[in-house]
Amino acid sequence: MSSIRDTSPEAERIWIQAFRNLSPGRKWLILGEMFRDAKALHAAGVRFRNPTASDDQIHAKWMQSHFGNGIPLPKRRPSMNPAMENLRSLREVLDVFSSLRIPYALGGSMASSVFGIDRYTRDADITVEPFPGLESEFASKYGPDYYLSVKAVQEAVRDRSSFNIINTSTGFKVDVFVRKEDGFEKSAMARRASLDLPDLPGQVIFFHSPEDVILFKLRWFRLENEASEQQLSDVVGVLKIQGDKLDFNYLETWAKELKVDDLLTRVRQEPGS
User: Fold this and answer.
1) What is the pLDDT averaged over residues 74-99?
2) Listing from the earlier edge strand, what are the strands of the sheet with 162-167?
3) pLDDT in the model for residue 11
4) Domain count for the chain
5) Contacts of 131 (CB under 8 A, 6+ apart)
6) Is the pLDDT assigned to residue 78 strictly greater than 70?
7) 102 vs 8, more confident
């Protein structure tokens, strides 16, 4: 679960402190840099195998490797590795929710990277309040670069499930989870907090709290038959970086309610957590 078991206690202490010294804004920008670098490495790999590959062919390979063959290619030529294109794609999606006054909260690995130890991720997870009657208007807000299904949006709002939004020009995906009618998700939305981030100062983004990011990830780990150790590594990262700032009474109460209290105990036993 931990990526630093082979690190000495002193080196680990310094390493963790270095992450604690990074501001949320700096970690946010690092997420943009990681996405850019991943695409640059992908392009290099494609050109190594096929030196004459065009930008369009490279982008098509990126889309295929991430989403299979079912997603249409962009209407216009994709730009190759512009700075912060994943952050721009995410903000465009969040701006649609804001324009329709639909409350949202960013969670998942982008949130755990901001509150904990950053890592590369190719998508974003957001929770939104149900918006019945607005599904068609919501979908109409997206331009030709975006892939989404009105039917999937309607079903997700009706069933309190999820749908996907993909920017086909950048290859970045947003997974949208419609808030379930349960106590934990109501609490998590009520506790969301805003951050003003340096890629677009003055236009805040709403995040799930660090505690709720931990709880969502523990619940996902259990629902996925405990197959993804990365979920636990993300949780450990938030625990290490946030430390005593976390509300452990809140964590323990909801962990017991969600039946993940054993997992919370497990991750808290990691050195430095």
Assistant:
1) 83
2) 146-147, 162-167, 172-178, 123-128, 104-107, 205-207, 193-195
3) 85
4) 1
5) 100, 102, 138, 157
6) no
7) 102
Q: Render pLDDT for 18-65 as a digit per residue (tens, 0 to 9).
A: 989 999 999 999 999 999 999 999 999 999 999 999 988 898 898 898
Under a CB-based contact definition with an 8 Å cutoff, are residues 174 and 93 in contact?
yes
Domain-embedded: residue 235: yes
What's the rounded Cα separation, in Å, for the pair 268 and 94? 33
Q: Would 229 be classed as within a structural domain?
A: yes
- Residue 98 predicted with pLDDT over 90: yes
CB-facing half-sphere around the CA of 93: CA atoms within 13 A: 29
Q: Enumerate the β-bridge partners of residue 127.
A: 105, 177
CA distance 141 to 159: 22
- Residue 264: exposure state from Cβ atoms within 10 A (0-12, 13-18, ≥19): buried
The Cα–Cα gap between 266 and 273 comes to: 10
Residues 180, 108: Cα–Cα separation, whole Å: 16
Burial category of 93 from C-beta neighbours within 10 Å (exposed 0-12, middle 13-18, buried 19 and up): buried
Q: Helical H runs in 50-182?
A: 55-67, 85-99, 108-115, 135-140, 150-159
Cβ–Cβ < 8 Å for 168, 74: yes
Using DSSP bridges, classify how beta strands 146-147 and 123-128 pair: parallel, antiparallel or unpaired: unpaired
Q: Which pTM value belongs to this model? A: 0.90
Residue 174: inside a domain? yes
- Write down the residue that tokens 């009618």 correspond to: 181
Q: Is 3 within a domain?
A: no
CA distance 112 to 209: 10
| CATH number of 36's domain | 3.30.460.40
